[in-house]
Structures are given as C-alpha cells and as structure tokens.
Amino acid sequence: RPVSVHRVCLAADPHFDVHHTALWASFADWHAEYKPALTVVMGDIVDLGMVSRFVQDGGAPVNAVCQIRAAVQAINGLVPQAGRVILMMGNHEDRWDKVIQGDNSVALSGAMGLSMEDQFYAQGLHPSVRWYREGKDFPGLVVGKKAIILQHGHKGFAKGAGSRHLAAGQLAEISTMSSARGHFHRAQLACRTELGRTVFGLALPHMSSTHEYAGGNPNWQRGFAELLFFGRTRLRDCESFTPNMIIADEQGRFAYGGRVFG
C-alpha cells in the first residue's frame, strides 16, 4: 500500500521587515505548491533593530509595529496552504520584552498588547497560528514520535561548538534525537548512525536581506529546510524522516522538483 509522506517546512531568521523579499516570494510560491503539513518559522521573525543595543544606520526602520505588521501579512499568507503554522520565539523577539517598560517608547508607537504574542494577534495574525518560546520548561518543539527537536538556538545551546561546526556540535550535545536550530544563519547538516539508527543535526540558513547585520558574516547562507516524514499515517507517529536543505542564490532563487522558483 502507498506510504504516507508528511512534509514539514522549517524557515528560520527572516528578520521582517529587513527580510530578503525575493527569497520570501520564491519561498511563498514553493509553499503554495507543496502545501506542508506543518510549517515552523523558527525565530527572529522580526528584526526590532530599533530596540537593540546595536547602533542603527540612518536608513534603518524606526518603528517596531510596522515590522510586526509586515511579518503578520507574510505569515498569514502561508496559513491557507499549510496544515499548521507554528512560530518560535528568537532572541530578536525577546527584545520586545526587554524594552516594553523601558525608555524607548517611541519605537513601540501603535502597540496593542504587552507580550510579543499579544502584539502579533492584535495586528491580525491568524488565530490558528501558535507560538512557542524556548526556556527551561520548554527546551524545544518535538516533531514526530521524538524524531526531531526544533529550537531557535539562542538559549545557550551548542555555543561551545563554534560557528564552524554547529551541526556536529548539536549531535554531540543531543546524541539520541535529531535537532534543527536557526539563529546562526549557517546551513549545515551532520549525521551519526549507531545501532542501525541515524540522527541528524541541522543548522538552518537565514532569510534576511543583508549580511552586514551586526557585523555580518560572508559565510552565511540563505534558504530553508524541509523534512519528509514517512512510515506512519499520522505525522506525530513518524520516527523516520529525510532532511533536505534548500539553499537560495543572491537573487532569492532555488531549484526544487525540476523547476526554478524565483
């Protein structure tokens, strides 16, 4: 009988509204065609540079709500084609909580609600979209039957491995379960097979527009990842999956399924 395949899409670090607009458009076309069972936007959804400790240049955005509205519009566009959409908090979302009671109130002009989650829903985020925040009580989002744990990666995970060996560091840190993390803007895939079982470490590329952010890195990659789960009728019962890293060029284009998106 046919084997069920469940597509999970992982999109990390778009940094609205300084996202790579051409890449997001290509990604949205891909998403509409392939209709993932689950789409997870894995942190740093908005940039919020105006409330950061980094000095902004003269052309940088000055209002946080405008960035939230841009993110809401883009994410709501994914909802009709996805079985579920989940948002994860990143370190850039944490900036909101740090300044909501601070002195930089002009950056939050137009805000409705206290938490970042409140703000997204107040600005029109589809009510079916759910949020997850990493912390001691919630180390990450588990997909499948303990098949992989998803984390933004800013809570101290794998920093000792350094940016050159992120995926291998994840395998060393979590040896019994696959893991996927964003935050570092690096695309890496590492595997380990023991006793007939293979686990993966995925470091995810980013979807923002500039490599100069906070100093930048010429070895950052843009793109996203998909996980194809199989072996069970329901996604939550699947233990096996195939990871695919999709890397875009500087114009936001990528090839998939025999065609070029973008």
Give your account of this protein's structure.
There is one protein chain. This protein is of the alpha/beta class and 262 residues long. The strands form three sheets. It has a six-stranded mixed beta sheet, covered by helices on one side. A hairpin with a 2-residue loop joins β8 and β9. The N and C termini lie far apart (36 Å). The relative contact order is 0.20.
Task: Record the SSE blueprint.
Layout: E1 5-11, H1 21-34, E2 38-42, H2 64-76, E3 84-88, H3 91-99, H4 116-122, E4 130-132, E5 141-143, E6 148-151, H5 166-173, E7 178-181, E8 188-194, E9 197-203, E10 223-230, E11 240-247, E12 254-256, E13 259-261
Parallel strand pairs: 1-2, 2-3, 3-4, 6-7, 7-9
Antiparallel strand pairs: 1-10, 5-6, 8-9, 10-11, 12-13
Helix content: 10-25%
Q: How are the strands of the largest sheet arranged? A: 4-3-2-1-10-11
Radius of gyration: 18 Å
Number of helices: 5
What is the CA-CA span between the terminal residues? 36 Å
Sequence of secondary-structure elements: EHEHEHHEEEHEEEEEEE
Q: Kindly report the average pLDDT value.
A: 88
Q: How does the overall form come out from the CA principal axes?
A: globular
Low-confidence stretches: none
Strand residue percentage = 25-35%
- Structural category is alpha/beta
**Largest sheet, described in full?**
6 strands, mixed
Number of strands: 13
